[in-house]
Protein 1
Amino acid sequence: MTDKTSPTRRGAGRPTREQAEARHRELLDTALKLFLENGFEMTTIETIATEVGMTKRTVYARYPDKATLFLAAVQRAIERQIVPREVLEELDRGDLADTLEAIARMRIGQVMTPEGLRLQRIINTEGYRFPTIFTAHLAQSARPLIEFVAGLLDRNVASGAIAPTDTVLAANSFMSMVVGGSVRAIVNGRTPTREDIDRKVHFTVHLLLNGLRPR
């Protein structure tokens, strides 16, 4: 007889640490999905527990209230959007324009994933109630990317490829121009084609670099 038990579901006996961690991740992912579908107010611990196949007591043993569970679920979603430094360094093509275009496409691609889209929408819908989720996303996911771009610009200022400038401000402007508009469109259901993304990214990167070239 085939065992149809999910590998993340608890079977007989005490679960292993790996099984417990998998069940915890399942809890957070399910909670975020329900918070987005139903809103924070209308989502209950009981609903989440039932959906994930846990008792309320099990959930409350880890999270004393709904707000704590919500923040933990959003934090997991943020962590899944963090790009490791080594991945960013692999995008460095040696040519500033090519590297900036690769970074932009990577970031837009993140938002287009189900996980990325879910995170952006939950920040948009619940950020007024929990402003810390916006600042956490900025600090942990967006700011390291901005700092990496600023470092690329610093290197090109030093080589004379671009004029001296406030590279952090330029990096913020880059992210806002080339990523921000696309993200808003995607979150609102207007998913661009790959050709649209490539065209906008190429145009905006070269517009930025034309403004930064030495005079």
Protein 2
Amino acid sequence: MPNHFVYIIMDSCRYDSYQAASTPNMDKLGLSERRYSYASWTSPSHYALLMGMVPHTSPRGVFASEVYKKEFAKWVDRLGIPNLSFKTFVPQLSLPKVLKDQGYQTIARVSLPVLNQFTSINKYFDEFVLMANHNDFATMVSEIEFPDQNPRFYFLNLGETHYPYMLEGEDLPHISGVHGVFNKMDEFLLHGNKQKEDTSFFDQEEMQRLHKQQIKCVEYIDDLLGTLFSKCPPNTHIIVTADHGELFGEDGYFGHGPVMHEKCFEVPFLEGLRP
């Protein structure tokens, strides 16, 4: 039977937040790497991930095509399918489509509204749910099951590490992401600056507090991973990574998206069979 596959995306988690966190469960999974996202914000990065393009290394002195080849070849070991034909990736260029064709049940749980089930990212999933709570990895873990009939592919987008990094009891300022901006654009265009949000920039102390909060959220996710690992059969391949990084005041930037900075692209990447 092919390997079950669990793909975990810690939204906005930059590499050094992962490094600074205590992650005993992730440490059991495998050695972590610093890699780079193909995009600086959630939607385009997830589209790339669902093409089968994991966050990339950045080797010098080689053709980019060679990097693609080596990364795509790893899907044979990840899925445990020795005769996997990479021609099946075209023309759709869809990892969920390839997995469905191999008999997988494809299931997505996402936290960010910009990835909701009405977007094209939902294509080729048997189940696709936008969680009611922005920070609900705990419910995802409780709902995951591995029946005997078919291998399963779980694609999990976690909002805990996305701004505002909310854990219980925390009171952090609110700034809209892309989805929130879209929701309020008509009102903004109608009223202009009369109803604008407070856009004063965070000072360095607040930046440091927010960075520490993201680190805490990584540790919270790691604790839940222990429960997830206990539910996974031994032949479950797991990837833990992020869709992009985040800025916490470096060079005058905060956040991600319309930002061109290395910290916006640096992400952790680790994978292996269920410990």
Protein 3
Amino acid sequence: MELDLPEHGKSSPLPPYRAVLAVDMENFSRTSGRNQQVIGALIPGLLEGALHRSDLAQVWENKRFPRHGGDGYVFGTDPKHLPFLISPLLENLQKELESIQPLLANLDRELRMRIRVSIDVGPLPDLGEDDPVNAMGEAMISTHRLLDSEPVRTELMRTDPDTTLVAGIVSRRVYEDVVLGGFTPVNPSRWRQVNATVGSKSFQAEGYLFVPTPSWGPNTVNGGEGRPDNPQLLEAQGAVPNRTDADTSRVDNSIGINSGQVVQGGTIHGGVNFGVTSNDG
């Protein structure tokens, strides 16, 4: 095989930018072999159906470098479609999954099909299926790392399995260009910034989570206030819980400028110092 290597010390042309969307099913390996075959066959149809619902049939018909991995799927498309891959596609993927739940229940009453989705964008070679470097690049790698990251996995763990069927995560670039840029109707307040890490890989990146149909599951407490019962879940979501000194039972909180109220639970030893001291009232 002959490779077209760039000449040392000279620039190379930048590959075309491609939006990349990847999906993966939660707990696929825990289902039976028979059910894995059924689910694997359903995944492309679910994506196609959600794209058709979203008036994006041409995206499916013209998808770039598609790959079906059994429990997941990835494809590329023109970056102009990025806003629509967020909304309405993620909402419609939720609807598609809701529509097939009766079918899954006929196979196995305990079977659930819940999907993680990741979206990124960047330069990727788009040279055809037979080319050995087709779709190889950082954007493809980061899309899969975001998909496997702890925060998006945890988002499904902490929600009701019969209600929340889709959890999406996008890269910082996609969030800034598409969400903060105002190209999608999903308000920034519905996104949560997270530290996307993959335990088995040396990957760490800023990501943004969005859940089309949020809910509270068995791993939340305080009447559904969104506080996971397990501190590891908090850490996986990028939140840092207050640290308690085991010897003094003291809770340390750092409070800066505050124009509202501060509510402290537990016992306070000593005083509470605010970041601003003033005699002006």
Protein 4
Amino acid sequence: MISVVLVASEDLQGLAAQMAMLVPAAVDGLVKEVVLVSGGEPGVEALAEDSGARLVTTPGDRLAAGAAVARGDWILTLRATPVLREGWREPVEKHLAGGAGGAAVLAAPGGLFSKLSPRLHGVLVRRLDWPMGGGDEKALAKALRAKRLDY
């Protein structure tokens, strides 16, 4: 159902931790695939091979490159940090069941001013609604008028 587009970095431990948080959702069928998008960082190819993730290497817009090969009905963008925490699935599943196809931002409170500046974990968007312009997650969320999902 969901293709996770995970933007690689040199933080291999963070990438591995992020992927580990996705395993139960993959086993249950919520996550259909993980597309690991790299700019050529060392060790990422081996991580993709060991985990079964699809690897895309590009010098350009990584989110757009990952979305272009995604096969799920929905795309969830993620980076190595911040790593998803327990409980991320519930708001995502509720949104998929009743969100009327709208985009959403997955956010977790973090710090003293968490109500004012939650930590952006990713953007959830239907693959068919992915904009042609590309950009980062904040621009994507703004362009799609994404609803905020706190967990």
